[in-house]
Each structure stands twice: as structure tokens, then as C-alpha cells.
Amino acid sequence: MLSRDKPALSRTAGRDAAHIDVGATGRIAHLEARGVAIDYAKPGSKEVTTAVEQCDLSLERGDFVCLVGPSGCGKTTLLNAVAGFVELAEGDLELDGRPIPGPGPDRAMVFQHANLLPWRTVQANVSYGLELTKKVKKPAAKQRADELLELVGLAGVGQQYPAQLSGGMQARVNLARALAVEPEILLLDEPFAAIDAQTREVLQVELLRVCAARDVTALFVTHDITEAAFLADRVCVFSPRPGRIVKEITVPWPRPRSHEIRRTREFSQLRDEIADVLYGAKAGAGEGTR
Ligand SMILES: Nc1ncnc2c1ncn2[C@@H]1O[C@H](COP(=O)(O)OP(=O)(O)OP(=O)(O)O)[C@@H](O)[C@H]1O
């Protein structure tokens, strides 16, 4: 347990890596945050900005959890902590009962902008991360890239270049690229925010199908309540900064899901429930800067 009163040398890995915490239930969660706080130093001052505070979250293997919340409440910060990019000021963040040791191939980030390498073919973009790991030879990496491109609905475009693809196609390549290293957890930061609404709906269905096919756990940040309700097993609503989860709302429908679910009355009610919590949390906002 990290505490601001007791700074650890490596604050993310603040406890013995061999120690496994089974918690009160006796079960080890796949990903667990307990009392997590994350601070950013303010340049040229001793003050800090607390982005996330008292954050508790637990995911089982294969869960799909969406994080929604006001702008600047710390959603991306929490994803970055799970990715191992930022340290904790307080609390515990564990994968399978062990503190997150830093970045690793077991977790892959998918960002809003695909940022594909324009001089590499689509296939070479997807196989790039795999080639870097040197775990497989180039022909095998290319073959895996082709399999993933087929999985995301892009069979046959492997020899094209990113500039020849639409935004929706680039988003699919972005997803295939993240899956290439066979991560256990996908960390998706508004991956479809820049895509038109119609294509986004198609991509959401595809994402659920792909996650089921690869049996990955997903933590997905979005500002779109409809998107969260459609994708998630649970929607976690954040307070304004410093962000903490004020409510977890369970989505009752099994995954994968089809488009029709969005047109039902139950879906509208669920969306309203998420919105009520979100706007209620915003209205009760406090100050977040120490
Ligand atoms: N590298 C950084 N250095 C200092 N402050 C940061 C840094 N990254 C984020 N912050 C601050 O931390 C807070 C949370 O930012 P974060 O990007 O996690 O929020 P968010 O919920 O993802 O926002 P949005 O929905 O607008 O993308 C913000 O006040 C932001 O300004």
C-alpha cells in the first residue's frame, strides 16, 4: 500500500513483487485498483495537481469496462497508470495480484489517432510491434498481421499504405496493431472519437466481436454515453478532478451485441441512468488542486 506519508523508491512497484494480495473475497482480480491516487508536479513549484484520488476498480479476465467522466477528471491518467507510464502517489494497482512493474507487452494502448507509419504498408504497420519483440521471425509476423487484418475486417488491404485508407479503416488497423503482440489487456483511449457516427457504430460492433474472439480484457475511455452503454459490462462514472469512481453501472446484456439493442427502450433507460450520475457528479464538483 502506497501512502503519501511513506514515499516508496519505486512508487508503482511499492510492494514486494512476489506478494500476491487475495483481498477480502479470497479471489485475485485480473486488474485491481485500491485507493489509487495520482499526482502531477506543477512545474517550478512544490504544488501538485491531483488527477485521480481514492480510485477503486476491479476487473476479471475478459471484462469490458468503460470509463466516463467530465473532461480532465483523470480517465487517461488512470489508463496510463495501468499501462505503467505513470506512478502512483497512493494506493495499489495490481495485475493478477502483483504490482504493475512498468510498461509491458501484456497491456496495449489504442489511442484516438492511429498514427500509422506512412512509409510502411498496412501489413508492416501491424507486424511492426511484433518484429520489435524479436519473438517471431518476419514471415510469421507477416502471417499474424494478415490474420489480424482479416479479424478486423480488412482482409486484402495489407499491401496498401495508410494514406490509401479511410479513417474507419485506419482505426481498424490501429486495433489490429495493438492486438499483434497478444496483449491480455487493451487500454483504449477514445479510439473512435474522430470517426463519423455511422462508422463508429459499425466499429463498436466489430470491437466487441474482436474482443470476444481474442478473449481480451478491455478498459475503454469515452465521452460518449451511448458508446459506453453499448460496449461495456460495467460503466464506471468518474467525478470531476480529482477523479474517483462515483458509481459503477452494470449493463445487463451479454456480449457480443448487435446494433438493434441501441434502439430499445431499456437501452435508452440505461443511457439516461448513466447521464444522471454523470451530470449529478458534475454538479457536485469540488476543487482538485492541492
Ligand atoms: N503530464 C501531465 N502533467 C501535468 N498535468 C497533467 C498531465 N497529464 C494530465 N494532467 C492533468 O491531470 C488532469 C487529468 O487529465 P487526464 O488527461 O487524465 O483527464 P481525462 O479525464 O482523460 O480528460 P479528457 O476527457 O479531457 O481527455 C487534468 O487536470 C490534466 O491537466
TrEMBL record:
<dbReference type="GO" id="GO:0016887">
    <property type="term" value="F:ATP hydrolysis activity"/>
</dbReference>
<feature type="domain" description="ABC transporter">
    <location>
        <begin position="33"/>
        <end position="265"/>
    </location>
</feature>
<protein>
    <submittedName>
        <fullName>ABC transporter ATP-binding protein</fullName>
    </submittedName>
</protein>
<dbReference type="InterPro" id="IPR027417">
    <property type="entry name" value="P-loop_NTPase"/>
</dbReference>
<keyword id="KW-0813">Transport</keyword>
<dbReference type="InterPro" id="IPR017871">
    <property type="entry name" value="ABC_transporter-like_CS"/>
</dbReference>
<dbReference type="GO" id="GO:0005524">
    <property type="term" value="F:ATP binding"/>
</dbReference>
<dbReference type="InterPro" id="IPR003593">
    <property type="entry name" value="AAA+_ATPase"/>
</dbReference>
<dbReference type="InterPro" id="IPR003439">
    <property type="entry name" value="ABC_transporter-like_ATP-bd"/>
</dbReference>
<keyword id="KW-0067">ATP-binding</keyword>
<dbReference type="InterPro" id="IPR050166">
    <property type="entry name" value="ABC_transporter_ATP-bind"/>
</dbReference>
<dbReference type="Pfam" id="PF00005">
    <property type="entry name" value="ABC_tran"/>
</dbReference>
<keyword id="KW-0547">Nucleotide-binding</keyword>
